[in-house]
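Troubleshooting log. The previous structure file for this entry was overwritten by mistake, so regenerating from the original sequence record. Sequence copied from the archived sheet and checked twice against the printout by T.R.
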Amino acid sequence: MTARAHLVTVPAPLAMVRALVAPLLMLLSALLAAPWAAAQVNTKTGATLAYVPNEGSATISVIDTLTDQVIAELPGGSKPRGLAIGADRRWLYVSDQPNNRLQLVDLKTRALGSTIALGESPEGVSISPDGRWVVAAVEGKNEIAVTDTRNNALTFSIKVHGKNPEHAVFSPNGKLLFVSAEEGEAVDIIDFGARRQVAQVAVGARPRGIGFLPDSSRAYVATENANEVFVIDTVRFAILARIKAGLRANGIAVHPSGREVYVSNGGDANVAVIDTASNQVVATIPVGQRPWNMALTPDGKKLYVANGRSNSVSVIDTENHTRLRDVAVGKLPWGVIIK
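Regenerated output below.
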């Protein structure tokens, strides 16, 4: 017995609708994917993106620094704070403070990846200049947790003398790691090759952000309760200068040329500009409320400032010392990194 083929005839009007709608759906899908696809292309070709951890909304806003537009929102764990991006731009490393871990985010799929247990209350995160090591300041354990990016595994930890470490920042030459002891009124200095602390420098109350000159010769440390920036000689581990900043000095960023240092003043809602030749404040720039951590584009032309209480990022023209615009992001942005 021969089976008969059954043909289903679609009414002509319905077939026409499908024929018209299908290309439109394909176009809409392409348009929705385009911003992130473009971001991936820009990243590969060297264009820079700014990543902003929003601890109040548990997301990471991605800003295209060419257009100053938010092009994506990534998941960030439960309370993202410190960030670092791997050398190959595949993984974003995020301190997830309430869960005591480092959360990995896959930048290709925009999905959460694996996690690395660190200890109680990890905060500041940075990556070594060679891209191999990601370090996280673990406040509850008074130590620095070190992850090897080759296998994304916790490899070792380094104890520090100061209490409640907030930031751990590599010198540009990768030899030293400076750690701000938030409750210790000091900066702990680690010889990273030796994997141990070699010095401690007393500074003002509640040290926060840290930045280095490009040649690694000096470090600038903001002290929130002292309203000062301390300048430290990285060879002698001695204080070279104390610079009066604004109210609740917090974040630090250093221009790629080394000629200027920027400090966010949380209580004054501004950013102070320090001339490194004179170690004097030469300008102040109004920004949003509760400015926190900051980052510069690689060419140094723009500074991005996370405004914790304004839910925005202020973009500053560093040549003219003027605010260009504010970019709306998630709730309670903690900082910015640019890659």
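Helices lie at 12-45. Archived copy saved in two places this time.
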